[in-house]
Amino acid sequence: MNELIKKGLKNWTKIKLNNLKYYHELLKEEMGRFKYPLHGIKKYTINIFKLNRIKKLLKYSNKLHIGCGGVKIDGFINIDAFKTIATDFVCEIEDLPKYIKPNSIRLIYSSHTLEHFSRKDSIQVLKMFYDFLESSGELRISVPDLIKLSDIVKTRKLEVKDMETIQGILMGGQDTRYNYHKSVFWFDLLKQILMDIGFKVDISEYPCYPHFLGDVKDASSIAGKPDLGVYISLNAKAIK
What we know:
single chain, alpha/beta, Rossmann fold, 7-stranded mixed β-sheet, 8 helices, 7 strands, globular
C-alpha cells in the first residue's frame, strides 16, 4: 500500500509540475507583448488561468461579443465583467489587451456598452477594438442615440414613466457601479470618432430590427420599443 501511495504521489507531482511549466511558458510568451515600467506591474498582471481560457476559446472563434450581459450569441466569445449565464470569458474591457492579440479578430460586436465609459475612455475602447481587428475585420457597435431621444422629448407630451425611461436610457440604471452612462453619441459624432481612429470603409448605420445576427434580442434591437414605441438605438458598422 505504501508503494502505491508513493507511486501515486510521484505521478501527481509530475502532473502538477508539467502544468506549472505549461503556465510559465504561456505567461512568458504573453508578457513579451507588454513593455510597462515596474510601477505598473500590478495593474498589468496577467491572470494565467484567464490566458489559458481565452486561448482555448480563440481556437474555435475569432468573433467577440463584448459586454454580453445575459445575452449569449452562438459562434461568438461572449465577454463581460460579470459572470452570467451567457458569459464565456469574464474580463473587464480595459483588461482585454492582456489576453487578445492585435490583428487577430474578424468581428467585434458590442451593444450598449460603450456609453458606460467617459468620453476619453470610450475613444480608447474604440481604439482597442480597432487594434484587435484583423485587416478587413468588422466592428458592430450599438449605443443609445441622443438624436432619437431628443426628438421624443421635443415632440411628445411625456408621462412620468416615459421621462424615467428616457433618463434610464441616457444615464443608466445606476443600480451597480458599472451601470452608469458617462458619454452620449449620435451618428455624425460616432462616425467622426471612428474615422479619426482609422476606420475608413463602410462606416454606416444599420436598422435596429431585425437584428443583423438573426434571432437575437438585446438592447440594439429592442431598446425603447416596448416603453416608448420607437427604437432608440444607434447601430453602426465599420470595416478596418
